[in-house]
């Protein structure tokens, strides 16, 4: 499972947790403007916006899990099994494979209204990257540096584009159902609860934090959706980049999957392999990994963004202990 958010305390931070039981060998990859993006059914994109994110380098093709471009548009693909449907090729449409969707959008759009325009002629097609790498069933959160976000889901009954008032996404069920489910948590609050139960019962507020007692704590996608939305809406908005990045990671880590809690096979547990976030206003990419909680930084502006070659960084996973004596 995964969780993706846009957090807008001052600048705007977009990214995700990637939860899985196996690692793909993904890296931080900066794709500069003149890297030739090939598409299966559409012409090459020779010049495009530069982007940074996490991807699998598959024979010099960056298969992005999530990324953000130099204009401050971000996009993440999250698992959507059983629902995600990819269609047959259609004449006259922009036929894009699911694994091409991120570069297709981030390569040419600057903001959400341009994405909505682009998607008017969009058709997501049923193609595998290769025999060995089948198309994953995904849905997408797309957000820009105004803080606006949308969700794109391609279901059996067609493509849906939802405006996203909460700025987060997890996995199943459909986004509309996730939003509806928030109704069940309307009374969750950071404040101490008022006794609406009965004036016949004395409730003395025996513990701090009782307002969030009924916040769901599970690893499942509905629980994570409610939890991350609540935690994000109530996170402080600070002045400095360090404080805001720190708060951003507190939000994502609050829905982290700790190893051992989400069993997916006899001896297999899903866990949060990495958490990442890009400052959409500044093009600075941050990440932590399960074993390395230090915040690591790749600033895309420090690269030659006019180059035509992928720029890759290995994820730093070594635990960082500061010995004080
Ligand atoms: C597995 C991940 C979702 C995490 C998640 O939700 N896990 C719960 C599993 S479960 O639902 O609980 O069982 C998703 C998120 C993004 C995906 C990549 C996107 C690019 C590319 C697309 C190609 O088509 C196939 C290969 C490819 C590298 C993809 C591999 C994999 O699919 C990635 C990593």
From TrEMBL:
Q: Which domain of life is it from?
A: Bacteria
Name the family the entry cites.
Answer: Belongs to the peptidase C59 family.
Identify the pathway: Lipid metabolism; bile acid biosynthesis
The chain positions of domain Choloylglycine hydrolase/NAAA C-terminal read 2-313
Taxonomic lineage from the root: Bacteria, Bacillati, Bacillota, Bacilli, Lactobacillales
Q: Mind telling me what this protein is named?
A: choloylglycine hydrolase
Q: Which GO terms describe its biological process?
A: lipid metabolic process
PANTHER family in the cross-refs: CHOLOYLGLYCINE HYDROLASE (PTHR35527), HYDROLASE (PTHR35527:SF2)
* Organism whose genome encodes this protein: Lactobacillus ultunensis DSM 16047
One GO MF term attached to the UniProt entry: choloylglycine hydrolase activity
Gene3D superfamilies noted in UniProt: Penicillin V Acylase, Chain A
According to UniProt, the reaction catalysed is:
taurodeoxycholate + H2O = deoxycholate + taurine; cholate + taurine = taurocholate + H2O
Keyword annotations for this protein, in alphabetical order, are: Hydrolase, Lipid metabolism
Q: Which NCBIfam families match?
A: bile_salt_hydro
State if Lipid metabolism is listed as a keyword: yes
Return the EC number: 3.5.1.24
- Catalytic EC class: hydrolase
């Amino acid at each position: 499972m995964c969780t993706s958010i846009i957090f807008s305390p001052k600048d705007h931070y977009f990214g995700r947790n990637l939860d899985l039981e196996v690692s793909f060998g993904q890296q931080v990859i900066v794709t500069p403007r003149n890297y030739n993006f090939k598409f299966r059914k559409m012409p090459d994109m020779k010049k495009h916006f530069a982007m940074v994110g996490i991807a699998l380098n598959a024979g010099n093709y960056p298969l992005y899990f999530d990324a953000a471009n130099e204009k401050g548009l971000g996009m993440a693909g999250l698992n959507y099994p059983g629902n995600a449907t990819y269609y047959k090729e259609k004449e006259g449409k922009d036929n894009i494979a699911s694994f091409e969707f991120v570069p297709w959008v981030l390569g040419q759009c600057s903001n959400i209204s341009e994405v909505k325009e682009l998607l008017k002629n969009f058709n997501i097609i049923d193609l595998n990257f290769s025999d060995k790498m089948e198309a994953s069933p995904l849905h997408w959160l797309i957000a820009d540096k105004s803080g606006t976000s949308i969700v794109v889901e391609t279901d059996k009954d067609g493509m849906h584009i939802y405006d996203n008032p909460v700025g987060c996404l997890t996995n199943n069920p459909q986004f509309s159902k996730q939003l509806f489910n928030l109704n069940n948590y309307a009374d969750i609050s950071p404040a101490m609860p008022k006794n609406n139960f009965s004036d016949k019962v004395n409730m003395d507020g025996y513990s701090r934090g009782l307002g969030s007692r009924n916040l769901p704590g599970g690893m499942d996608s509905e629980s994570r959706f409610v939890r991350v939305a609540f935690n994000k809406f109530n996170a402080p908005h600070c002045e400095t980049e360090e404080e805001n990045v720190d708060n951003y990671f507190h939000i994502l880590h609050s829905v982290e999957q700790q190893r051992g809690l989400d069993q997916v096979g006899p001896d297999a547990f899903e866990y949060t392999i990495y958490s990442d976030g890009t400052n959409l206003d500044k093009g600075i990419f941050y990440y932590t990994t399960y074993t390395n909680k230090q915040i690591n930084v790749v600033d895309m502006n420090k690269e030659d963004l006019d180059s035509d070659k992928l720029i890759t960084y290995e994820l730093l996973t070594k635990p960082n202990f500061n010995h004080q004596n």
